[in-house]
Each structure stands twice: as structure tokens, then as C-alpha cells.
Design a protein that fits this description.
Elements (H helix, E strand, L loop, with lengths): L5 E7 L1 H4 L8 E7 L2 E6 L3 E11 L5 E12 L6 E7 L4 E6 L2 E6 L11 E3 L1 E6 L11 E7 L4 E7 L4 E8 L6 E5 L2 E5 L3 E6 L5 E6 L9 E5 L2 E6 L3 E6 L9 E2 L6 E5 L2 E5 L3 E6 L5 E6 L5 E5 L2 E5 L4 E6 L2 H10 L3 H10 L6 H21 L3 H10 L4 H5 L25 H4 L4 H18 L9 H15 L3 H7 L6 H10 L3 H10 L3 H12 L11 H10 L4 H14 L1 H4 L1 H4 L12 H7 L4 H14 L5 H18 L8 H16 L5 H8 L5 H10 L3 H11 L3 H12 L4 H15 L7 H13 L6 H7 L6 H44 L24 E2 L5 E2 L1 H6 L11 H6 L1
Antiparallel strand pairs: 1-28, 2-3, 3-4, 4-5, 6-7, 7-8, 8-9, 10-11, 11-12, 12-13, 14-15, 15-16, 16-17, 18-19, 19-20, 20-21, 22-23, 23-24, 24-25, 26-27, 27-28, 29-30
Length: about 850
């Protein structure tokens, strides 16, 4: 696709250059600074001074002033001109001779230095001599197959080297030690330092004029086959893709990032970045195209022109204006080498931002997001497109010059609501991604407030996530926006985050009571209770606790049961809470259960209070008729569990309330707590007639106690079953089952003394077999224990005898291992490890200081 990269500007017209001498033609050109030199076919050199001026529109114009001209007197065309400004010399090739002339006077140097027998020459722009007061010149000699290397000084020329070539060179370019030569049939790379050469590709010089141009360090541009401009390095490889130009190219030059080619009718401009032809300029009868210090010069036989590159910034802006984003970015990245680093970075960021807005306008959101990020876009530039999105307190002003031409989103999308919705979804995603990154630094309030507005408008679930996390939403903008969109629960969250807890609760209570309509949470009442249970403002908790308990006692009591355990209980004392909840029957029961079962508080008043409440509930539900409700069963189960598990309630108080009722099971449990087991078992066996309950009573009452306690309870129960004068068949069978099921819990001898004489052996066979097995097991265990004890005692005795059999030497040089004092009398204590101590020291210390080994247990055992 086309782009205007160059403008053709006339420099020298025919009237100023040759006048009416129409037979004269321009054969070569050289430009150095403001100096323009023209070599003509009539052996003349013209020197002009150029003045550059820019019009108000930025268009360049050149005014040439003729300084002088010089006739060389040989009636041959001037073939080549090259200025060496450091030496103030002009190198002129005419009649196969290179002459050194003064740049200003155009007079030959007094020494008459010249090089003869030359068909073409080039100056080495990357010299290897390192001498700043000379230049290196490479010349094609008229001698067959020879290239000569010279150093040219102010007044002399010195031949350095001659290099033989496979064929006679036609044209060449040089960089450092490397020569790129166009032979008559092929191109080659030759190093005159090592003498090595490498063939590149063939061509026919008779059919086509060769082109060899140095375009950079160790890189050349050649006219290749199939109308290709080939890039070749000194290593003989191509690191760039070729450009495709016309078949009749007669000249080429490089002005990065473009290759400019000249044919008989046009000048074509090709990009080195994407190899596409970017511009075509009509130019008939051109035969010279050269670059001088970044300037491109075109010439016909009568006129001279400059091909002026337009500023890259302007080219890029033109591409962006025509929405050719990829080409603009490619050109920008390619221009990096020609622009100072700091300037490039600023320009590149701006271009990325502009490209991002173009992609955004085309709904290419992924591409736009990447460009915005890489361009470090001030996100407020994007937010400003959305009406009313920026906070009212924002002082943001759009970039100048503007990054885009859109007034707002409505103009950009021409009122298309579907597209506007897509743009809003994109902004939500983008803001959410960057809000926790460095991009948001300094703009956190703007970003979070904008996100709140977008979420509320779109009824997006992320609104709540934003408000319950760390955020910087501005109240002055957020409150009316949330009210407008009826997001009252979210508004409460915003109040809560900003420390206005009472305002949040007032709003939520109105929603629960139906004064405000907001269906965000169907469980808002439970949420309020949960909020109050963790609220550290106790005054607020007490204020709203009544409302919650009146609404639902079972849920409302969680305000107190779910409070943090490490909370300061000054204003949340359990005693105060119990007194407060007294008017709420369900709530006070649930709170006491929480204290006793969850927090395991061991206080008699709580246990007694809960037991009384349980009992009152049972008595209230106790039927006058025979029907029993599920609620009563549940209430009696709770009472029974508490009576069995707790040992802290006032038993006599409960017995006084229960004694005149038929709550036999509960009464039995209470007697058991008073160690009145016979009464308890009698109630269970004779009044309740629940033999399984009696057995369970024996088990749970002896749980955690020694085996004799359990044995005593089971013998009591058996005695009740076999009580003379009371025993029935049912009781007898219960006694048999008790013996057979719990044989190990009984003393077999006592049982045999208790059972009636008329019971058969077969009836008691399960009991007897288990009793015998248990007795035998106990006997074996006792014998084993006794044997082990005897063995251990024998080991200790052996160790004691062995220790007494050793010789003990005591002298006045021995010291006590405890006090480090000398022995003054033959009285001592010897430890099992052989150390000695005073008797008085040994009675004070149980271990030696050096080892901390305790010998008290050993002494006791021995």
C-alpha cells in the first residue's frame, strides 16, 4: 500500500546549469554540505552553493548560487566526483585519471598528485588505516583484472595494495577490508586483507547495468536476477528479504528504511521492512541516482533534483490517519536506528497509544489492550471517552495534540448500543486487570470509581467483589450512582468499607423490611446477623440485636453465638447476654447450649439454667392425654443428654421439680448423679420396666471409672432381677440375658451364690463358658506379670552384686564429684558409674553435676 515517503524538489534547472548549450549533459554529481559539484560532458566542473529554506507549510526549497566553474582542458567527460572535506580536496575522474583539486578554487594541487589508468573509483567509508588525515580509495585499474588500494593525503597519493580479480571489474563498493565487485558475469565478495573471495550470483553485464551500493557496515545492495534488489553481507549471506523492483533499473540508493530505485520513467520507493512498494514518482530521462550524507540526488541530462524524505513522524501519522496500524508500527520500529533513544521512546509510546485507539474504534479489543499496555497509556484517556465515567473531582485533561479524534463513545460508535455495550465490557476487563499494577499508580480513585459505575450499570457480579476488597471508590460519585441503579446492598458494602457501619445497617434493614427493593441477596437477613456477630462496635450490636431476634430468634441468636473467642468481653459478658436473652425462650436456650457444649464453660449456673429450661419445655409439652409429639421426644432427648453428660447442675433442684411426674428416666439419671444407684435402677426396672435402659445406665455411669465400679452396678441390677418375692418370668429372663451378655463384668462366684437353684446349667452355659475363659485369662496374665517382675528383680540384684564386687581405691588425693573437695575420712558414696562423693553431698543432690544423670530411681530399685 502506498505512502508518501519522499518529495521531488528541483535544485538546478537547465538555464542555470548549461543555458542554451543543449549539447552539454550532466554526467556526475557530488554534494558535500552546502556545496554542489556538477561534472559535465564538455569536461567542465561547476560549483554551486545551496541555501535551504522551508515554507510555512514545511515544504523545502533550494536556492543555488553559482560559485565558479572549471574547464579541465581534455575534451573528455567528467566521469566521477568525490569531495573529501577533511582534506579540502575534490577527487575528479576524467580521461581515466584521478586528479586532486582544491574544493574551493577548483585548482589542481601544487604537487600535481594524480592517479592514472583508472576506470572507476570509490572512497572507503569505513577506512582501516585509522589515519584521520587521509582517505582510502579503491580504484578499478585499466590493467586487466586489477583493483588498486590507495591512501590519498592533502598533496600526495600512495599505492597500498594491488589485488587481482578473476574477471575484469565493471563496478564496485567497499567497506573495511571487503570489496563487493561486479564482474562481467557475476558478483563476488573479496577480502583484500586475507585474499579470500566468495562468488555471490551470476548476471550479464551486457544485458543489464550492474548496481553495487554500500548501505551499511559490511552490507551491500546489488541488482540481482529476476528484477530483485538483493542485500548481501560481507560474509556472503543475505539477512534481509529482497525487494522487487522494475526490470529496467539503472540506479539505486538506500535512505533507511527505504530502497529507492530509478528506471527510465519512474522513481520507485520500496520498504526494507516489509519489502512492499510504497511510492511511485514519475521521473522521465533520469540517469543519475546517488545518496550523499543522507540526501538523495536525481539528475537528468539537463537538470538536478533532490529527493527529500518526509519526516518519519509525518509518514507514521499519515499511516495512522488511514488506519494502517501494522504498517505504522512496523515503520516506527524500523526507524529506531535513526532517532535518538529518548526521543524515540516518547514517540513510540505515543504511536502505540494512537494505534490502540484505532484498534479500539474497530472493536479489536485484544489488540487495543496490548497496544495500550505497551504504550503505557494514561488510562484516563480511555475512560474520558465514556460519558460521566471519570469522577466529578477529576482534573484530567486529554493529551495535546490529541491521541484520537473522538468526542465520546456515542460519537465513535454512532449510537449503536450493542457496540457501546461491548466497549463497556472491554473497559471493565481492562480496568480490572490494571487496577493492581503500576499502571494504576496515582489514578486508583479514578479507576475504582469507574469500575463501580460500570459494574452497577451492567448489573455485574464483580461489583460486590470490588466493594468487599481493598478499593478507592469515591463516595461523592459512588453513592448517587448506586442509588440510581438501585444497588442498595452494594451501597451498604461501600458504607461499611468506609467505616460508616450504622449507615450500612440502616440500608440493609430497610431492604429486609421491604422499604427498599434490591434482590442482590436473598439471604440478606442472615448476612446482617453474620455482620453483627463480627462487629466490634458493641453499641451497634446491642442496638440491632432486638430487631434481629424479633425477626427470627434462631438466626438472630447467632449474633452472640458466633462472636470471636478472643473478643474483649467487657461489653459482651455471657452473664449480661443471658439476662438480655431471657425474654427470648429459644434464643436463651441456644445461647446456653453454645456456652456449655461449644465453649465448654464449666459454670454451675449455666448448666442448671439450661437444665431447668429443658425441663420446663418438657413439662410444658408433656401430654395430658396419651399422644406424644416429635417435639416432646426431641426435648426429652436434649434433657437426658445434658443430665447424663454434665456434673455441674444442681441435682436436688431438678429432683424437686421432677419427683411428682412420670419422667422416670430423667429421675433415674438424677439419682445416679447422687450415687443413689439402687433407687435409679429400681425406677428403671420396676417403674419404667426398661431393662435395656437399666443396662445402659450401668454402662454410662461406670464409664471412665475402674472395673469394680461397673461390677458393683451390674451386681446391683442382677440383684433387682432376682429379688425374692418380686421376681417374675420377665425379670428372670432379663437376668439371664444380663449374665450372658456381660459375663466378663461379673464375679462368677458371687453369681453362682445368687442365682436360684432351679436354673439349669444349659441356661447359664454362655455365662459360665465366658466366666471360665475370663478367669483363665486373668490367671495367665497374673502369672506372666509375676514372672516378668521376678526377672526384672533378678537383673537388679545381679547389677547390685556386680557393682559391690569391684575394688574401690580411696586416697587423700581423690575429690568429691559433687563439691570437688578432698576426702578426709574413709566414708563415701559410690555411684553405679564408679564416681565417688561425700555422704553429705550425695544426700543433697540426686545427680552428678558433670552428667546430670539421675541415680535416685536406681537407688530405690536396688
Amino acid at each position: 500500500m502506498s505512502v508518501k515517503a519522499f518529495e521531488l524538489v528541483p535544485v538546478l534547472g537547465q538555464d542555470l546549469l548549461i543555458g542554451d548549450k543543449t549539447w552539454i549533459s550532466v554526467d556526475c554529481i557530488e554534494c558535500c554540505g552546502k556545496n554542489l559539484y556538477v561534472g559535465t560532458s564538455d569536461c567542465c566542473i561547476y560549483h554551486f552553493k545551496l541555501e535551504e529554506k522551508a515554507s510555512a507549510s514545511g515544504r523545502l526549497a533550494y536556492t543555488p548560487t553559482k560559485q565558479l566553474h572549471k574547464y579541465l582542458g581534455v575534451k573528455k567527460a567528467v566521469n566521477e566526483l568525490k569531495a573529501a572535506s577533511a582534506l579540502n580536496r575534490l577527487l575528479v575522474l576524467c580521461d581515466n585519471i584521478v586528479i586532486l583539486m582544491d574544493m574551493i578554487s577548483l585548482e589542481p594541487v601544487p604537487s600535481g598528485a594524480k592517479i592514472k589508468g583508472i576506470t572507476a573509483f570509490v572512497v572507503n567509508e569505513n577506512p582501516v588505516t585509522g589515519d584521520p588525515f587521509c582517505i582510502e580509495l579503491c580504484a578499478i585499474s585499466m590493467k586487466r583484472k586489477t583493483v588498486q588500494i590507495y591512501t590519498v593525503h592533502e598533496d600526495r597519493v600512495q599505492l597500498i595494495k594491488e589485488i587481482s580479480t578473476p574477471e575484469q571489474p565493471v563496478d564496485m563498493a567497499v567497506d573495511g577490508y571487503f570489496l563487493c565487485l561486479a564482474m562481467s558475469t557475476q558478483y563476488i565478495i573479496l577480502s583484500y586483507n586475507t585474499g579470500t573471495s566468495q562468488d555471490l550470483f551470476p548476471y550479464n553485464s551486457e544485458d543489464k547495468r550492474p548496481i553495487v551500493k554500500r548501505i551499511g557496515r559490511e552490507e551491500f545492495l546489488l541488482a540481482g536476477p529476476s528484477a530483485l534488489g538483493m542485500f548481501v553481507t560481507a560474509a556472503g549471506i543475505s539477512q534481509r528479504a529482497p525487494v522487487h523492483w522494475s526490470e529496467n533499473v539503472i540506479g539505486a540508493a538506500v535512505c533507511f528504511p527505504y530502497v529507492v530505485a530509478l528506471d527510465e520513467e519512474f522513481v520507485t520507493v520500496h520498504s526494507m521492512l516489509d519489502q512492499q512498494q510504497k511510492q511511485t514518482i514519475p521521473f522521465r530521462d533520469g540517469h543519475i541516482l546517488q545518496d550523499f550524507e543522507g540526501k538523495l540526488i536525481l539528475a537528468t541530462s539537463k537538470e538536478v533534483y533532490f529527493l527529500v524524505p518526509l519526516p518519519l513522524e509525518r509518514q507514521i501519522q499519515d499511516l495512522l490517519t488511514s488506519q494502517r496500524v501494522e504498517e505504522a508500527l512496523l515503520l516506527t520500529r524500523g526507524a529506531r536506528r535513526n532517532i535518538p533513544k529518548e526521543k524515540f521512546q516518547g514517540m513510540y509510546r505515543r504511536i502505540l497509544q494512537q494505534a490502540g485507539f484505532i484498534q479500539f474504534g474497530q472493536l479489536q479489543f485484544l489488540e487495543a489492550k496490548e497496544l495500550f499496555r505497551n504504550g503505557q497509556l494514561d488510562v484516563r484517556e480511555l475512560m474520558s471517552l465514556y460519558p460521566l465515567l471519570l469522577p466529578s473531582t477529576s482534573t484530567f485533561i486529554r493529551s495535546h495534540p490529541p491521541l484520537h479524534e473522538y468526542a465520546d463513545l456515542n460519537q465513535l460508535m454512532q449510537g449503536d448500543q450493542e457496540k457501546i455495550t461491548k466497549c463497556k465490557r472491554f473497559l471493565m476487563s481492562y480496568l480490572n486487570e490494571i487496577r493492581s499494577t503500576e499502571v494504576a499508580n496515582g489514578y486508583k480513585e479514578d479507576i475504582d470509581t469507574a469500575l463501580l459505575k460500570l459494574y452497577a450499570e451492567a448489573n455485574h457480579d464483580s461489583l460486590l467483589d470490588l466493594l468487599v476488597s481493598e478499593n478507592s471508590c469515591l463516595l461523592v460519585d459512588s453513592i448517587p450512582w448506586l442509588e440510581k441503579h438501585k444497588k442498595y446492598f452494594a451501597l451498604g458494602l461501600l458504607y461499611h468499607y468506609n467505616g460508616q457501619h450504622e449507615a450500612a445497617l440502616q440500608l440493609w434493614v430497610k431492604i429486609v423490611e421491604g422499604q427498599l427493593q434490591d434482590t442482590t441477596r436473598s439471604d440478606l437477613f442472615e448476612y446482617i446477623v453474620d455482620f453483627l456477630s463480627f462487629c466490634s462496635n458493641h453499641e451497634l450490636v446491642w442496638k440491632y440485636a432486638d430487631w434481629a431476634l424479633q425477626k427470627n430468634e434462631e438466626v438472630g441468636v447467632q449474633i452472640f453465638t458466633r462472636r470471636p473467642l478472643d473478643e474483649n468481653q467487657t461489653n459482651m459478658n455471657p452473664d449480661d447476654i443471658v439476662n438480655y436473652l431471657h425474654k427470648y425462650k429459644k434464643a436463651v436456650v441456644m445461647y446456653l447450649e453454645h456456652l456449655i457444649f461449644d465453649r465448654n464453660i464449666q459454670k454451675e449456673k449455666y448448666h442448671t439454667h439450661l437444665a431447668v429450661l429443658y425441663l420446663d419445655k418438657v413439662l410444658e409439652l408433656h401430654p395430658q392425654s396419651g399422644s406424644i409429639s416429635e417435639e416432646l421426644i426431641s426435648a426429652r432427648r436434649s434433657l437426658k443428654n445434658l443430665l447424663q453428660q454434665s456434673n455441674l447442675y444442681r441435682v436436688h433442684l431438678l429432683l424437686g421439680k421432677i419427683k411428682d411426674t412420670d419422667l422416670y428416666m430423667e429421675c433415674a439419671i438424677l439419682h445416679g448423679k447422687l450415687e443413689e444407684h439402687e433407687k435409679a435402677l429400681e425406677i428403671l426396672v420396676h417403674k419404667l420396666k426398661d431393662f435395656q435402659a437399666a443396662e445402659d445406665y450401668c454402662l454410662w455411669n461406670s464409664d471412665g471409672k475402674d472395673s469394680t465400679c461397673r461390677q458393683r452396678l451390674f451386681h446391683m441390677l442382677l440383684a433387682l432381677y432376682l429379688q425374692p418375692g418380686v421376681t417374675s418370668d420377665a425379670l428372670a429372663m432379663a437376668g439371664v440375658d444380663l449374665l450372658n451378655n456381660y459375663a466378663v463384668e461379673f464375679d462368677a462366684v458371687r453369681v453362682l451364690q445368687q442365682v436360684p437353684d432351679n436354673w439349669s446349667i444349659q441356661l447359664l452355659s454362655p455365662f459360665l463358658s465366658r466366666a471360665i475363659r475370663g478367669s483363665f485369662h486373668s490367671k495367665c496374665t497374673a502369672e506372666l506379670t509375676s514372672g516378668l517382675a521376678r526377672s526384672e528383680n533378678l537383673n537388679y540384684k545381679y547389677a547390685k552384686v556386680k557393682s559391690r564386687g569391684n575394688i574401690i581405691t580411696l586416697s587423700d588425693k581423690k575429690v568429691c564429684q559433687i563439691c570437688q573437695g578432698f576426702f578426709t575420712e574413709p566414708v563415701f558414696v559410690r555411684y553405679p558409674d564408679g564416681r565417688l562423693a561425700h555422704i553429705q553431698c550425695a544426700t543433697k543432690y540426686q545427680s552428678l553435676p558433670a552428667t546430670d544423670q539421675n541415680f535416685a530411681s536406681r537407688r530405690n530399685q536396688s
